Structures are given as structure tokens and as C-alpha cells.
Amino acid sequence: MSSKDVTRILVVGGGYVGMYTALRLQRKLKQELRQGTVEVIVVDPEPYMTYQPFLPEAAAGSISPRHVVVPLRRVLPQCKVVIGEVTAIDHDARRATLTTLAAEETGNGAIEVAYDELVLAPGSVSRTLPVPGLADVGIGFKTVEEAIGLRNHVLGQLDIASSTRDPAIRDAALTFVFVGGGYAGVEALAELEDMARYAVRYYHNIKPEDMKWILVEATNRILPEVGPDMGGYAVRELRARNIDVRLETRLESCEKHVAQLSDGSSFPTRTLVWTAGVKPHPILAATKLPLNAHGRLKCTPALQVDGVEHAWSAGDAAAVPDLTAEPPAEPDAPRALCAPNAQHAVRQSKVLAENIAAAVRGGPIVDYAHKYAGSVASLGLHKGVAHVYGRKLKGYPAWFMHRAYHLSRVPTFNRKARVLAEWTLAGLFKREIVSLGSLENPRAEFELAAGTGRHNEAS
């Protein structure tokens, strides 16, 4: 694929930065795209963007999984969406190597794509540690598949506990361990505990107090983004719901379905959710572009890769100086960086698209500057914490602000309307507590009928 006839913009990643940048480029370069003088290619392994702040509510059943994702081809009709993965980038030659689903099927190998402007927005991946047994039993919480799989798993554990008289099996099934006290861990635990507490009313032999929910955090507080006061309130709120919050504690081992903690305690469990941080996508290390000590791309305030022409980045992949932060005390000390969160990613993508459009047309580029507005977090239905523009909220007002903010940020009016409709219906009717774990193995029933497999309940 050659870029000699057109100016080709290659966007690696279809997450927050990738999708919003391409969406903005569609509007800014509408005439060039229509005339065929500019081409925007978006490459991502999935055909959709996942709005991750809604994953906890999807896991709890408050939002349908299909409404947590935004189909790229629908919102980017003027772009070429390629479902594949970039495996190597030679920026000196302006060429990227990628593999697609078709390439895997036909065995034709990788495809080379030439480009003129490169946007690196592959996002991040879960940061795991060499904890014995973690790779075998751990469950992540970054994708919609993981969120729905975890929901089915939790409900399945209630079924197991309800159908056995073995106290060891029952205790392990009703013990849920979450590692990581950031947004993902706290919100996932709080929403799922709310759901499970509601669900057990339909089990004749399980009571809410039979369940053990444990949050393990290596530092001395949770939800650092909302500040120490609101973080402390969140700990008290969770503990008031009999959730065991263990600060300054680490997971030492989880072999043989036993979670061994650094404080000496151990818990037999069939559920271990790992949300202890993220790390930059591995593709960044394969680009030979300048990286900082944490593996993120060194960028200028204009979102250009530092010292490299025609290469841009933002979001989790980029180390962007925060122009609104206090300047460092030492003249030679580096300036503080923008936090790698959704608030900055969405705003950076707008400036990024504007600057790329200016570069294509020969105009001036501008620096990104945004003062952090604050954070909101849900602690389950009608419960939350918030620290926004210096004001601290908790309980119902914070929960309402959390929903209102994310409803305003989820892309497309279509998604906004569908999510709002689901929230409205959820307020009028009872929760759905059906486990559809068989969706993860759809051929099980046919294999049983054909005599080539076992029933999925027996697997």
C-alpha cells in the first residue's frame, strides 16, 4: 500500500485518542477526504471503542454490553478501519507492518502500510507481576468481554455455593478478592457486590453475610485521584458494607485457588480480579522512538513525539508536559506530566487532530493545556465520591454527578440515548440476575449432541 498519491494519516489504536482523533479529522479535513487527497487509516484489533468507565455498570447489569462499545465503522465512515494489529514501525521509512484477520487465515503474512503522518495511540495493557498462580487464575477488567465474563462468573459462583454442602467449596465460591484500589478495582468491586447482594435474595440458602468481598491495595489509600479525604470516606463506606479493605497489603500468591496476602492471611477463593495498574502497550518499545523511564513516548506540549517529525501521540501512550502545573523548583528539573486518564485523553485528541490538520494544510500548531478538573467514582448504586473543581461530594450527589459526567462524555447521541433509556428502565424494574456463562462456549451444546464433547456445566 503506497502513500505517493495522497497524504496518508495512520492512526494506531481505536480507543479514546484514536477514535476521537479520527472523528475530529473527519470534520477538519472533510474537503480533502472527499477529494481523495487525504486518507485516514485506523488500525485496531477490535472493531469498536470501549468506553471503559461504563464497564463496572455493564458487569453489574445496569447497562447492556453492546451500549458500552462504539462501532468504529459507524462513527468513522470517512476513514478506513482496519481490524488488525501493528507489529512493527519503521518511522524513518514511514512504513508500518501489521497483521490482519485475513492475513492469519490465508497465511500471506504481514502487510506493510506506507504513511505520511503517524498517530500512536495504542493505549495501555494490564500490568501484571510475577505472583505465583496469577497467570492461571487471575481475571482482568479492561475489556467488555472481561466485564461480562466476570459478571457471569460471580453469578455462577453463587450457583455453585447454593448447590453444595461441602463447606470448603462453598466458602471458596463465596469469597471474591480484588487486587488494586484504583478506579477499576474499586468500582468493579462495589458494583458487583451490590449486584450479588441483590441476587442472593433469590437463593434460599445464601445470605449476604455469607459472602466475603476483599479489596487488596499496596498503598495506604484507595482512589488517590479523588484526594485523601474522599478516599478515606470511600474506605469507610466499603467497610460499612462488610467489604474487607486491606491497605498496605500485597498479594503474595494465588496458587491452588488460595489468595495469600503479605499480612499473613490467606483466603480460599475461586475469584481473583487483578486491576493493579497498567503499562504502555508493547508496540511503543518496537518503534525506536524516544521513550521515558516508564515506557511512554516523550512528547512536546503540541503532542508531537519529541525530536521526531510527523509522529504524534496522546493519552496513555504519551508523556505530555502539563503546562497548567506549577513549574519545577529546579530550573533543569522536568515539568510535571499530564495524568494518563480519560479526561486528558479526550481533550488531547481534539488538539491532536487540530494540529495534524494544520500540519497537512501548512498552518500553525498549538500546545495542549488543560487544568485537571477533578475526579468522580461510583461505589455502587446511589453511592459515590467526587472531588471536582475543589468541591467534595459523597453519597447520592457524587453518584449522580458520576453518571451525568460520563453520559455527557460517551460518544454519539445514539449511545447517550440508549444508556439513558437503560438507566431509566433499571430504576423502574428489578435487576436482571441471569448468568449467561454458556455464551463463552457456544458450541458446547452442539458438541454434546454430536457426541464430541461434554455438557458445559460438567466442564
Key words describing this protein structure:
459 residues; 14 helices; 7-stranded mixed sheet; 24 strands; alpha/beta; 22% strand; 5-stranded parallel sheet
Task: Report the radius of gyration as a whole number of Å.
Answer: 24 Å
**SS-based class:** alpha/beta
Overall average residue pLDDT? 89
Number of helices: 14
Secondary structure: helix percent: 25-40%
Task: Kindly report the spatial arrangement of strands forming the biggest sheet.
Answer: 7-6-5-2-1-8-20
Principal-axes shape call: globular
Largest sheet: 7 strands, mixed
Uncertain runs = none
Beta-strand proportion: 15-25%
Give a count of the beta strands, DSSP E runs of length 2 or more: 24
Distance between the termini: 46 Å
Tell me what the structure shows.
By secondary structure, the chain is an alpha/beta fold. The protein contains 14 helices and 24 strands. The strands form seven sheets. The protein has a seven-stranded mixed beta sheet. β12 (212-216), α10 and β13 form a beta-alpha-beta unit. It is globular, with a radius of gyration of 24 Å.
